[in-house]
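Design job #97: recover the sequence.
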């Protein structure tokens, strides 16, 4: 009886932590969401629109959800604004946090990260803000470029903070301070690593904790690179190039294997960790699927996603890298998964429900995203049976149950 109660308490603790902490693209940054009993077919005009909000301003960030509140940021003029909604879509609060990027492809890039009662917001100018979740007051802020010899990149810094324990991992991309770990409570520097000394490349880092050494993996200008999570020691780096050295996609990790895909004809590759994670080798390289920033989803032994220069929808064999099929579709896509289905948001403004099938392409349902403004670049989010979709100025919530 005591063991049962202890197990229940532990499970409740884990569930509460998951509800209170939120990071971009799901629990493991792999685009997988754990909702079940979702619609397997949508009505002809799409799932029911529960609510919408017009007024976010410019940007392509996604929602973050904790403690029954929805957080999202946007830009008006050059002002970075934070919006807070209840679960019914009622606007509870909005607050100016600082400045934001208005030089090209204007607007917010990095979504809100939520951890232990704090909101962490990174603007494209290189400033990381820590905001109290209850009061929305700034606890601390740090200019990563000024403090850590970084230089901004062509389209502005684009990184979703990675928080593990008491550390925040970020990539200023400086020659000396290439990646840093900060104290999440104070912003103080814990460690700094020279890495390869090359610029940041729009990528958000990934934590891997099941090897003999805990590591943080990210993509910089010409490499995929791993750092010891506790010390910053560079464990290994592996060449990864494309025509522009732009690598926005978070690597995907499964059972000692790291999948990395990049646009501009960079292709997709699978790496195998060796020596407990202290070294790496390439397993295969597929030059067809060159996903730029919509990422991919791995389901079982297969990988699904779109290309950038090669504008097709792809299914790859995860074991061999073989292209199982490619289908000419309209535009590049952001992809996530829940309840055994693929949710695909095309940059041409269409939301698709696709059944993952390595034998053939199975489009189940689709509808046009007619609301909103600007590029269709935001990654969808699924939470408690609701699909949250942002198109520039507009946030939409669709009923999936």
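Job complete. Output follows.
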């Amino acid at each position: 009886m005591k063991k049962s109660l202890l197990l229940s308490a532990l499970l409740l603790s884990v569930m509460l932590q998951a509800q209170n902490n939120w990071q971009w693209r799901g629990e493991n940054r792999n685009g997988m969401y754990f909702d079940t009993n979702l619609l397997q077919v949508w009505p002809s005009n799409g799932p029911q629109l529960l609510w919408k909000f017009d007024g976010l301003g410019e940007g392509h960030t996604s929602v973050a959800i904790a403690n029954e509140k929805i957080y999202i940021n946007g830009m008006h003029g050059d002002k970075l604004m934070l919006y807070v909604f209840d679960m019914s879509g009622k606007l509870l609060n909005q607050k100016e946090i600082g400045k934001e990027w208005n030089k090209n492809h204007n607007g917010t890039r990095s979504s809100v990260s939520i951890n232990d009662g704090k909101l962490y917001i990174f603007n494209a100018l290189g400033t990381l803000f820590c905001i109290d979740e209850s009061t929305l007051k700034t606890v601390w802020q740090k200019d990563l470029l000024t403090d850590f010899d970084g230089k901004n990149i062509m389209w502005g810094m684009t990184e979703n903070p990675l928080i593990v324990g008491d550390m925040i991992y970020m990539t200023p991309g400086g020659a000396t301070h290439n990646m840093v770990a900060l104290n999440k409570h104070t912003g103080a520097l814990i460690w700094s690593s020279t890495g390869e000394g090359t610029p940041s490349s729009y990528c958000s880092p990934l934590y891997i904790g099941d090897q003999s050494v805990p590591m943080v993996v990210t993509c910089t200008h010409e490499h995929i690179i791993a750092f010891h999570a506790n010390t910053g020691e560079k464990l290994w780096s592996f060449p990864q190039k494309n025509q522009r050295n732009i690598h926005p996609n978070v690597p995907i990790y499964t059972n000692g294997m790291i999948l990395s895909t990049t646009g501009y004809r960079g292709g997709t590759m699978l790496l195998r960790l060796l020596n407990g994670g202290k070294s790496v080798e390439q397993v295969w390289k597929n030059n067809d699927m060159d996903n730029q920033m919509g990422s991919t989803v791995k389901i079982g032994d297969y990988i699904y996603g779109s290309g950038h220069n090669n504008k097709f929808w792809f299914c790859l064999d995860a074991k061999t890298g073989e292209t199982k099929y490619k289908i000419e579709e309209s535009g590049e896509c952001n992809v996530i998964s829940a309840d055994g289905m693929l949710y695909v948001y095309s940059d041409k403004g269409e939301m698709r429900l696709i059944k993952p099938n390595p034998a053939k392409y199975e489009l189940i349902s689709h509808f046009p995203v007619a609301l909103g403004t600007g590029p269709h670049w935001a990654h969808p989010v699924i939470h408690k049976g609701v699909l949250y979709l942002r198109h520039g100025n507009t946030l939409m919530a669709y009923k999936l149950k």
